[in-house]
Amino acid sequence: MDINYELYKVFYYVADTLSFSEASKKLYISQSAVSQSVKTLEKKLGQTLFIRSTKKVCLTPEGEILLRHIEPAVLLIRKGESQILDSASTGGQIRIGASDTICRYFLVPYLKRFHQSFPNTHIKVTNATSIKCAELLENGQVDLIVANYPNAYLGNVASLKKIKDFRDVFIANTSFKELKDRKLSLRQLLDYPIIMLDKKSTTSEFLHTLFQQHQLDLVPEIELSSNDLLIDLARIGLGIAFIPDYCYPNGADDLFIVKTTQQLPSRQLVIASSSPLPLSHAIEEFMSYFDQIP
Q1: For residues 223 and 240, is the Cβ–Cβ distance under 8 A?
Q2: CA 191 to CA 240: how far, in whole Å?
Q3: d(CA 234, CA 173)
Q4: Which tens digits make up the pLDDT trace of 225-282?
Q5: Side-chain half-sphere exposure of 22, counting CA atoms within 13 A
Q6: Distance between CA atoms of 15 and 11, rounded to whole angstroms?
């Protein structure tokens, strides 16, 4: 079926904004031209794509199906245009997704090195959980992500490279000093208040799965979205925090690692990309930094 791309483009903007007037503003064409384009597309496809009323516009089931296919294509075209324009004017751009923790405790030196080597390349970092980063990557909103692994949401990536092994640790302050010279089983840990990341994180999935493997039901005392906050709360004695070992403050006299009888499984940081397009020079150069990590 021979349908002009512009019709699909108009459809996408109306579906994205659910407004014919907003779509016309973004496309710099008249509202009547938008309406006519949608009618033409509906006629060619033989399907009604929008339900129109005086107050709102919404997609029909057929429209929702079409949007799921059109949106990735539009985003891919935008990405290609952006890479070409940025390469010509600023030396390109790189869009990275990573959590606050990974950015602060791992990525900053690599971002500094890259910026010093390529000062004209625009760096955009989007902070999100490793689960959300996988979604951003799949939707084409970032070029690559650095995320925790295992991560069930990374099943469809084109490239995945493990770049760092780490282990998670339980930490506490002197309020729990009786634990300093002991090793606790996971069951014994349940007698104490556990503070950890919330359920929207791979870390939470990892720890809950670990306890379930030992037929134990983990009920955290506090769940937060930041490892730094977990460390702060551990410092004031609100509980035993569960954090990656690379976040543990060096020389922290007020904190100690609570040892466990079972060695916790290691996890990894990975760098992943999923674009079917060839990677830009900037992205390839940034990813090459991690080839040198033992």
Answers
A1: no
A2: 11
A3: 6
A4: 999 999 999 999 999 999 999 999 987 789 999 999 999 999 999 999 886 666 777 8
A5: 11
A6: 6
Give the helix/strand (H/E) hosting 222: strand 222-224
Residue in this structure with the two tokens 């483009």, named with its chain if needed: 9
**Structural contact between residues 49 and 42, judged by C-beta atoms closer than 8 angstroms:** yes
Domains of the chain and any CATH numbers: 5-77 (1.10.10.10), 90-161+274-292 (3.40.190.10), 168-265 (3.40.190.10)
Residues 199, 204, 209, 215: what is their CA dihedral angle, to the nearest 10 degrees? -80
Q: The pTM is what? A: 0.69
- Please give the Cα distance from 210 to 113 (Å, whole number): 37
Instruction: Identify the CA nearest to 266 among candidates 246, 239, 291.
Output: 246
Q: Which two tokens stand for residue 70?
A: 């059109």
